[in-house]
Structures are given as structure tokens and as C-alpha cells.
Amino acid sequence: MDIGYIAPISGLIALVFAGALVYYVSKKPQGTQKMKEISDYIHRGALAFLKEEYKIISVFVVAVVIILLITSYFTDLPWETSIAFVVGAVFSALAGNIGMRIATKANARAAEASKKSMSGGLTVAFSSGAVMGLSVVGLGILGVSIFYFVYGSNAANILFGFGFGASSIALFARVGGGIYTKSADIGADLVGKVEENIPEDDPRNPAVIADNVGDNVGDVAGMGADLFESYVDSIISGMSLGLILSVFGKYGVVYPMLVAALGIFSSLVAMVFVRAKNPYTALRNGLFGASIIFAVLAFVVTYLLLNDLNPFYAILVGLADGVIIGLSTEYFTSHQRKPARKIAEAAQTGAATNILEGLSTGMLSTVIPIIATAVAMVLAFEFANFYGVALAAIGMLSTLGISLATDCYGPVADNAAGISEMAELGEEIRKRTEELDAVGNTTAAMGKGFAIGSAAITALALIFTFVKRAEALNITMNMSLTSPYLMAGLFIGGMLPFVFSALTLGAVGRAAEKMVNEVRRQFKEYKILEGKGKPDYERCVRIATKGALREMILPSLLAVIVPVVVGVWKIEALVGLLAGATATGFLLAIFLANAGGAWDNAKKYIEEGNFGGKGSFAHKAAVVGDTVGDPCKDTSGPSLNILIKLMSIVSLVFLPLFISI
Amino acid sequence: MDIGYIAPISGLIALVFAGALVYYVSKKPQGTQKMKEISDYIHRGALAFLKEEYKIISVFVVAVVIILLITSYFTDLPWETSIAFVVGAVFSALAGNIGMRIATKANARAAEASKKSMSGGLTVAFSSGAVMGLSVVGLGILGVSIFYFVYGSNAANILFGFGFGASSIALFARVGGGIYTKSADIGADLVGKVEENIPEDDPRNPAVIADNVGDNVGDVAGMGADLFESYVDSIISGMSLGLILSVFGKYGVVYPMLVAALGIFSSLVAMVFVRAKNPYTALRNGLFGASIIFAVLAFVVTYLLLNDLNPFYAILVGLADGVIIGLSTEYFTSHQRKPARKIAEAAQTGAATNILEGLSTGMLSTVIPIIATAVAMVLAFEFANFYGVALAAIGMLSTLGISLATDCYGPVADNAAGISEMAELGEEIRKRTEELDAVGNTTAAMGKGFAIGSAAITALALIFTFVKRAEALNITMNMSLTSPYLMAGLFIGGMLPFVFSALTLGAVGRAAEKMVNEVRRQFKEYKILEGKGKPDYERCVRIATKGALREMILPSLLAVIVPVVVGVWKIEALVGLLAGATATGFLLAIFLANAGGAWDNAKKYIEEGNFGGKGSFAHKAAVVGDTVGDPCKDTSGPSLNILIKLMSIVSLVFLPLFISI
Fold first, then answer.
1. CA distances for B140 relative to B12, B16, B93, angstroms
2. What confidence tens digit (pLDDT) does each residue in B140-169 have?
3. pLDDT tens digits, residue range B433-464?
4. What are the residue ranges of helices labelled H in A473-536?
5. Handedness of CA B384, B385, B389, B391 (dihedral sign)
6. Would the CA dihedral through A415, A419, A421, A422 be positive or negative?
7. Residue B307 per-residue DSSP state
8. SS3 letters for B227-295?
9. Within 13 Å, how many C-alpha atoms sit on residue B456's CB side?
10. How many CA atoms lie within 13 A of B445 on its CB side?
11. Contact assessment for residue A193 and residue A140, using Cβ atoms and an 8 Å cutoff
12. Which residues are A53's β-sheet partners?
């Protein structure tokens, strides 16, 4: 039997497990009528957003398929690329859909389970996160495997379409989801908390459901699609480089898939470790357990199969890079560490010093991830050439099954805490769910760092794949930095993340304004706070949906069109563009995510009673920082992950077009 | 006679003119005793800062000379490089010293001249700015010429030392000056305006003199040293590329100097145009006049001398790039344009939305400068190869004599307005000087954009010089983007501007805190506001001086040491580092400068009576934005100009070291 069959088998097993967890979570009691009602609102709101989003994506997908088919007709682009594109888009959407369905079903169930014990709530929330994690890796590897078994080694050329499909979904999910979540959040907070002085998650706030939907849309569907993209892109670039560089004979192409399969097995085994009194310890045990099991499996398989441990070392380097970036993120954003506390301290002299300290912290926090990734790239190259760089990306993403489960646990716990508040489950339950939520915030911050890091290393692997593929096609180009075209591309590429961030920041502002007006209108016209009328949640959900989808189109098109235009002009300029965009995209993403996270936790630190506590002068200043940081860390920052990967994969897909011109 | 003699002659003429203007300004009446007293405080404070700064710089210069001599002993580095280094440092310091002496003498005189008419005040302020402008270009070209006439074509190899010397002064002047000006400004404002509710420039505020000194230290000395560096670096890189590429026979090396000389003549002639009822029109006429005269002269000389107009076109491209960047800066920061007004509008919903809108505006404002510079680089290359890129830089900086005069006019007008306020010259004089100041703000913003743009194109010319020189020395290196070492360098280089900005932002915060405490102490202990005691200006000046000088050391050393360490490791990594640092340095500098400028002018727009005017909710929010923007635009942003040029010139100087290892 072809050893490659292990890959689809691992995918199927992951999906079977995901199915079992869906069953397990669905069977859990949903609690009181009120809880059920709120959960249903969120569930329906989230699905309504997905449905509208799919409509826009369908138009995009059809347009791209037409363009791909025309390109295939006139150039050497294999026509199967369009099929791969559609399958990639459908698989990514499917994974996101499954994950979001179960996440929005699990929230009330996690709150209900918390009535018994905190670990009960943890199990439900984590299980629903695991559905997302396993769906992503299962569908990801299954999709890649299908093409591998149908087209053999040639699949490596077709699969870029698969990556492109996954990227497209990720783009809309991240940008649209990011705009949705923050416009709802800011709208709910500015009118509810600030103007009317009612608590967060107060059911009288018309935007409260949209806010909870947003957590799922942004942090579950957006994050899932983002990492689905990284996951499949890293495997595809490994397969492609294995083919181009003809390494390890017949195993060069299949080895990346096998490594990914080992990661899936490790994640599945490690999921049993996720049980401990302390939820943070539980999740950490799971993550570390998976990494250790994976390292052992990868060592054994690499040694037996390739009889050369260098690829294993490259994988290990990627794994280590991911851990270092996660720890660095944790240090720079946690409210138990110096940086966030210094930001809180600076809030004592006002909003301006609070903002400046946050900006400075965010900028400084780029050092460790950048150096770690640069070193990882060089080491991986030393171990196994460009193939090694792709393996490092695969290594970092190998245990995605469980790490994504940990990420997606966060929004479920957040929603559970919200439901406890809205359904008035009483002090103790609320405390338990809030503690689960707090752990979720930490894992979410680390997950964000991990998502950025994996996007950067994946983008690097894709750029190298692009160059090697262009070389293999005998294209003469001056890839040297002495080419002014390449340098011009570098400058313009470096600029794109700035423009992209400016657009997404502006989008949140515009969408939030509409939400603010709507919430104000409802409070006034329906006399909700006077106890006379009821809030119209659905209207707010519709406004958030419409705003997000309208605003996501311009930045999204930019990301797809620019590389094609530049590539048609000059390939070396395109290479410069990709390198520049990856470098500044990586930097800006970390800066925005960590500054935002640190402002958020500085505020939380003050709310714990430091520097005057809630309502103090420092607290008001910290709220300004938190509001500034929100769209930075949840919209603009994460969207950059997609930008850098998408531009690389688009370049790879359209390479035959650039050549033929 | 060697045609090259035109260069030192132009330099001497510029210096003679500068001397005449010094005489002219000094002869103007200084006004009342009170005005004289305040002006003297500022003058002495500024010189005290320079003196302390020189002490630190001396240590640095001696250390570098020792390192250079050791390197010369063991490698092929010409030992004359150390001489060039010292001369470059001394000339830059001299230009800064002259400019600052006269600027701090001219402030009261400009206020006094405004008693007669606004154009009287304009003439005095502009004349003192012209002293700085002409000193910079005069000493710059004279220094380069001396080496050219002593060492002939070989000067091109020695002159990197001259550039390094100029860079070193610029580094300390920009970083130290930037920290000084903003710590004094924030200290004066936070306690005076915000806490005690006394007007800006109130003589009872102990930090008011330090604040006025800061304007000169930062915007005169810092800006002058920055542009001195760009000016000489661009000429040096042109000469070096002329030598390496052996273009235009015997004229290849001398042509860049000639072009610079033409620029000096044009600036001198155009200075007579600086007279009109409206000060803005007057300054603009001067700038455009100089550009037109220069273009005509350059056309004629190029045609007659080289019989090939391509170098002229490259120069023109650079000139156009500078104009475009200036206009773009004006658009994104002026309070008469949409972006700043939208930021003011966003202030109505609070500080957070004001900050977000400013961040978004700053990011978006990178588009035009980046594209213009990328296009200019490609066109200049098409016209005259790498030599053309250096010529574009020279073209952009050709009319520096007058454009720097316009920049340095700003702080003099600002000080004049301050003195009018402090010496109670009455409503009308204050209005006149404030109008002069307002024009100064616009020219200062455009000057900032110009300084950034010229730094970027100069850095590009230096990078190409570095690569070509390395190639000429037969170094084998993989300069392709497929080198993971180069890519790692690119990432780490891209990170440096973020770290540098984080350090300088943090430095301002720490230094400002000390100032705040001192001002609070004086108000309390001396009972100044109760009319009992007098403020101790000198103590505040000392605190600002000490704080700035202490804080400038770490970022400065970083900028010098990192390229040397990376270069010793791997030259291709260094090339990546330089390219990455230039790209993100350029981007971040524009982002920080324009966001800061736009916040500043959004506040001014509100103060004009819009959105509630002074004291309104929107105004309070806009003050937060302005305070955040202050160190962004006056410290961190401008310091990046130096960082990117300095790292390139350091690499060029130490290239023989990297080779020999």
C-alpha cells in the first residue's frame, strides 16, 4: 500500500472524532428557556452572517473560476486548478461552517455545565473548539490527499488552486468577520457602557447579540479559515518544493503530508490530557502533550522513512518558533507581566500617555517573533534547503488540531460568560464562566501570535516556492536586490499592509458609527431602559452583517488584484512585492495585535483594583486605549495574516500567466 | 582650470552670503529689555544643550576614530577615512552651531520687526533660516570638494568617512534634539496648560524657556544636521557610482558636485523672490523659483558638458519626487484639507475615535510618497542606471539652500510668537507673529515630508553604491532574494525602525515625566502662580538637556553596531538588512510624521471654533491626539531618517572589514 494513504486516513479519523464531539456537545442540556433563547439568537445571527457572506463569496468564486479557465486556455496553467480552487473554497467554508455551528450551540451548554463544576464547563467549551480544530485539519489534509491520489506528483502544481480557494474564504472570513465583530462590540459598548452606563452583556442592549455573534464570526470562523489556509498552504509548498528540488526520491512529495498526519494523531491523543482542576493548566498540558508526542512520532517516521534526520530538525525548528512566538505574545500582553502593567501605570497621567506606552510596547514586541522566525528560517534552510523552510512551517502547524481547539475554546467561554450574565444564572456560575473566559483571553492572545507567526513562515515558504518554480520554468530574471524593479516592488509591497490596515481600521469606524446610531435610536424610540419596549436584536445583527460585508470588498479585491498586476508588469518586482509585504505585514500584524492585547489587559489590570480601579481617572484613560486597541488586534492585525499568504498563493497560481506575457 | 572648482566656489559664495545675513540679522533691533532677556534665555539654553551634546559626541568621535584606524591597519580601509570622518563631523556640527546661534538671536528681532509690518518679521525670520540653509550646503559642498581636490577620483572611497561623520552628528542631533524638544513641550503643557490652566508660553511656566529652546534644538539643529547628511551622502554616492561604473569619462565623478553647485546658485538667486504680502506665497515663490532656475541651469550644463540629457532627466525625476512628497504631506496634514478635518470630526465621539482616525490617516498617507519614490527610482535607473538613482537624490536635494531656509524659518517664527506673548507686545503684534508661525507650521510639515523622502532616496542610492562597490571588489555573494540569509536580514532590518521608534517614544515619556515633576515642584515650592516666587528656567533647561542626552545613547549605539555585526556575519544578510530597514523606516517615518501632523492640525481646526471650539468635548479629545502625535512627528519619525542613512553609510565605511573576514 502507498504510505501516502496514512494522510487521508488521518483526515477521516479526525472528521469521525469531530462528528463524535458534535454528538457529545449536542446531547448536553441547554439550560433554562432564557439560556436557550439567547443561544438561539446568537446561533441564528452567526448563520445569517455566514449565509450573506457566502452569497458574496459565490460571486467572487465564480468570477475567479472564469478568470482561471480563460488563463488555462491561453497559458500553461493546468485547467484542474479551477477545480482545486473550488474544492479549496468549499472545504474551508465547510470547516468554518461546522465549527461555527457547534460553537454557537455550545455556549449555553457550557454555561449550563458550569453549574456542576468549572471543569464541566471547560470540557464542553473545549470539545466544541476541538470540533473546529479537527474539522480544519481533517478537511485540510483530506482535500490535499484527494488531489495527490488523483494526480500523483503533478498534484503539486494543481494544488496551488486549492490553497487559493482556501485563501479566498479566509480573506472574506477574516476581513468581514473582523469588521463585524468590532463594529458590533464598539457599538454595544459606546452606547451601552459609556453613554447609558448599563453593564456589558446587558440583555437590554440591542447590540448585545450582535456583539456575541461577532465573537464567533471573528474568532471562530475567521481564525479557523486563517489557519486552514496556513495549514494547507504549508503542506502544498512542501509538496511543491519536494517535487521541484527532487529531494528524498519518491518520498519528497508525500513526506509533508505524512508529517501533517502525524500531527493529527498527536493532537487526537493529546486531547485526553485536557483535564485538570485549573483550566489553564489543562489546556497547556494538551498543547505541550501534543507537541511532545508529535516530536517523537516525527523523529521515528523521518528516521525510518528517509534515513536522514535533517528534515526532522527543520520541523523541530518550526515547532520551536511557534512556541517562542506564543510565549513572547503572552509576555507582552498578559496583565500579569510588566508591559501591560506599565501601560496601566501610564494611564494615571491620562489617555495620551496610555496610548504612547501601548504604541511603544507594541513596536518593541516585534523583536522576539521576528528574530525567532528569521533564525528558524535560516536554520531550516541549513538543515534541508528550501524544502526545510516549508517543513518548518508544517512543523509549526502540525499540532493545529489541538491548538486551534484551544483558540476556539475562547469565544465559546466568552459567550458562556455572556449568557450567564444575560440569563441571570447568579454570582457563582458567573464567576466560574468568567474564569473560563479569562483563560480564553490568554489562549486567544497566544493563538493570535501563533496565527501571525505561522502566516509569516508559510508566506516565506510560498515565496521560495514561487522563486524556485519560476527558476524551474527557466525564467530569466534578476532576482537580486540590485534590481531597481525588485526594490520598487519591495517598497510598494511594504506599503500594502499599511494601506490594508488603514482601510480595515476605517471600515470598523464607519460600520461602528451605523451601529451606534441604531442602538441610540432603539433606546430612544422603544424606551427600552424605561422598561417599556424590547430591543430588536435582529436589526443590529443585520446592520453589522451588511456593514461588514460592504466594507470587506475593497481591501479584499486589492489583495487579489495588486499581485496579478505587478506580476504581469515584471516578475522580479512581484518577488520584491511579496517579500516586502511579508516583512511589513508580519511586523505590523504583531505590532497591532500586541498593542491591542496589552491595552486590553492594562484596562483589566486597573479593573482588578489597581491605580484606582473601575471608574477612576486611570480607568477612563485605559478605556480609551482599549477602544483604540480593539480594531487593531481583532480586525486589522489578523487581516494582515491573510494578505501576505494570499498574495503569495495568487502569484503562484498565476505564474504561468506572467511567463506567457 | 578644472571645472570642478565651481563646486568649492559655490560653497564659498554660499558661506559669504550666510555671513552677510548673520550681519544683517544681528544689526536688527532686539526690542524691549524683556524681549532681549527672554531671547537671551533661549539663546543660552540652546547653546548649553549643544555644549553638553558635543561632550558626548566627542567621546563617540574619538572611539570611532580609534576603531577606524584599527580597521585601516588590518584591512584595505584607507586610513584617510578617519580624517574624513572627523571633518564630516566637525563641518556638520559647525553648520548646526551657526544655524542655531543665529536662529536663537533672530527670534526677538523678528518679533520686533513685526511691529512695523508682517513682511518685516518674515524677512528677519527667513534670513536667519537662510543662514542655516546656506551654511549647510556651503559647508557640505566645501567639505566634499576639499577631499576631491586632495585625493582626486580616489576621494570617492574616502568620502564615505565624511558621510559617516555627518551621519553621527545628525544621529545625536535628531535623536537627542527630538527627545529634548518633546519632553520640554509635554512637560510645559501637561502642568501649565492642563493642570494649572495658564496659557501656552506663559512666562510663569518654568519649562517655557526649555520648550522654546526645544524648538530650536529639534527643528533647527536636528533638521539641519539631518539634511546636511542627506545632502553630502547623495553627492558622495553619486561620485562613488560615477567612479565604479566609469560613466561619462572624466566627468562622471565631478558631475554630481557640479549639479549641487548649480543648486546653490539657484537657491541664492531665488532668495530675492521671498517677498510678498502673504508670507506663504513669498516662501512658495522662493521654492518654486529656485527649482525652475535650477532645472534650466542643469539642462544647459548637462547638455554642454555631457552631451547627453539622460542624467538631467534623472535629476528632474528626483526634483519631481520631492515636490510630490511635499504636496502629499501638505494634503494629509493641513487643517484646510479633508483628512485633518475628518480627524477633528472623529474627536466629537471621543479620544479613541480621534486616535483611530489619525492612525488610519497616517497609514494611508504612505501611499503617494512610496509610489512616487519607487517610480522615481525606476525611472532614474532607466535614464542613467544606478548613477541615475544617486542623481535623483541629488536633484531632490539640489535646492536645499532655500528649502532648508524655509524649514528653519518655522521655529524662529514660533519663538517670535512665543516672545510676543511672554513680553506682552499686545494683540496686533501677537496676531502678526502668530500668522507667521502658522505659515511656519505648514512649511515645517512639508519640510518633514521632504526630509523623509530625501532620506529614503539617499539611502537607496547608498545601498546600490554598497552593492556595486562590493561587486567591484569581486565579492561573491548571493544577492538574490532566494538567499535565506538575505531574507533573514530583510526581516531583521524591517524590525529595526520599530525598535528604534519604540525606544525613542519611551525616551520622551521618561524624560517628560522628570520635567513634569520639576514644574510641579517649582509651582508648589516657589509659589509662582501666587505671584510670590520666580520660575527657575535654567533648572528645566538642564533637566531637558540631561534627559535627552542620556536617552539618546542606547538607540544611537544600536544604529551603529547592528549593521557592523550583521555585516561581519554575512554581507548578503547586511544588504537585506539595509533594504528592509529603508523600506519600513521610510514607511514608519511617514506614518508617524503625518499622523502626528494631522492630529496637531485637527486640534487647531477645532480651536478655530469648529465642532465646539476650545474647551469642548471634541477639543479635549483632540488634545489627546495632539499629545500622542507630538513625539511621533517630532522625535520618532525624524530619527528614522537618520537610522536608514546611517546604517547604509556605516556599511559602506566598513565594507573592507566585512570582506577581510
1. 11, 14, 11
2. 999 999 999 999 888 888 999 999 999 999
3. 888 888 887 788 788 888 999 999 999 999 99
4. 484-525
5. negative
6. positive
7. S
8. HHHHHHHHHHHHHHHHHHCCCCCCHHHHHHHHHHHHHHHHHHHHHHHCCCCCHHHHHHHHHHHHHHHHH
9. 34
10. 26
11. no
12. none
Arithmetic mean of pLDDT, B470-499: 89
> Which residue from B380, B559, B567 is spatially nearest to B461, judged by alpha carbons?
B380
Q: Which residues of A225-241 are buried (b: 16+ CB within 10 A; e: fewer)?
A: bbbbbbbbbbbbbbbbb
Q: What is the pLDDT of residues B339-352, one digit of tens each?
A: 999 999 999 888 99
User: What SS3 state is found at A81?
Assistant: helix
Number of domains in chain A: 1
Distance, CA of A416 to CA of A408 (rounded, Å): 13
Taking the CA atoms of B167, B168, B170 and B175 in sequence, report the sign of the dihedral they define: positive
Strand, coil or helix: B480: strand
DSSP B590-628: HHHHHHHHHHHHHHHHHHTTGGG-TTSHHHHHHHHHHHH
Among the partner-chain residues B359, B482, B484, the one whose CB lies closest to the CB of A505 is B359
Q: Is the CB of A482 less than 8 angstroms away from the CB of B479?
A: yes
Distance of CA B472 to CAs A301, B242, B469, B478, Å? 49, 13, 5, 15
Report the pLDDT value the prediction gives residue A144, as an integer from 0 to 100. Answer: 95
ipTM of the complex: 0.94
Amino acid A644 reads: I
Q: Which residues of A touch B361 (CB under 8 A)?
A: 502
> Of A381, A498, A586, which has the smallest distance from its Cβ to B591's Cβ?
A498
**8 A C-beta contact, residue B291 and residue B323:** yes
Q: For residues A180 and A524, what is the distance between their CA atoms, to the nearest angstrom? A: 24
Query: Residue with C-alpha cell 566627468?
Result: B251
* SS3 at position A202: coil
> How far is B61 from A348, CA to CA, in rounded Å?
41
C-alpha cell of B259?
549639479
pLDDT winner (highest mean) among A274-278, A427-431, B580-584: B580-584
Number of alpha carbons in the 13 Å side-chain half-sphere of residue A363:
24
CB A583 within 8 A of CB A498: no
Q: Please enumerate in sequence order all residues whose Cβ is within 8 A of that of A27, keeping only pairs 6 or more positions apart, or say none.
A: none
Tell me how close the Cα of A39 comes to any Cα of chain B, in angstroms.
31
Distance CA A291, CA A285 (A): 10
A227, B101, B134, B405, B601 from B22: Cα distances, Å: 65, 10, 11, 13, 33
Q: Which of A331-335, B214-218, B460-464 has the lowest mean pLDDT?
A: B214-218
CA-CA distance, B326 to B323, in Å (whole number)?
Answer: 5
What average pLDDT does range A123-147 have in this prediction?
A: 95
B236 Cα distance to chain centroid? 19
Q: What is the grid cell recorded at B632?
A: 511621533
Q: How far apart are CA A43 and CA A40, in angstroms?
A: 5
The answer to whether the Cβ–Cβ distance between B509 and A360 falls below 8 Å is: yes
Q: How confident is the model at residue B1 (pLDDT cuts 50, 70, 90)?
A: low
- Name every chain A residue with its beta carbon within 8 A of the beta carbon of B584: 494, 583-584, 587
Which residue type sits at B634?
D
DSSP, residue by residue, B351-405? HHHHHHHHHHHHHHTTHHHHHHHHHHHHHHHHHHHHHHHHHHHHHHHTTHHHHHH
Structural domain of A541:
3-660
- Using the beta-carbon criterion (under 8 Å), do B487 and A460 form an inter-chain contact? yes
Amino acid at A527: K
Q: Rounded to 5 degrees, what are φ and ψ at B480?
A: -80, 155
Does the distance separating the beta carbons of B584 and A583 come in below 8 Å?
A: yes
Neighbour count for residue B653 (Cβ, 10 Å): 27
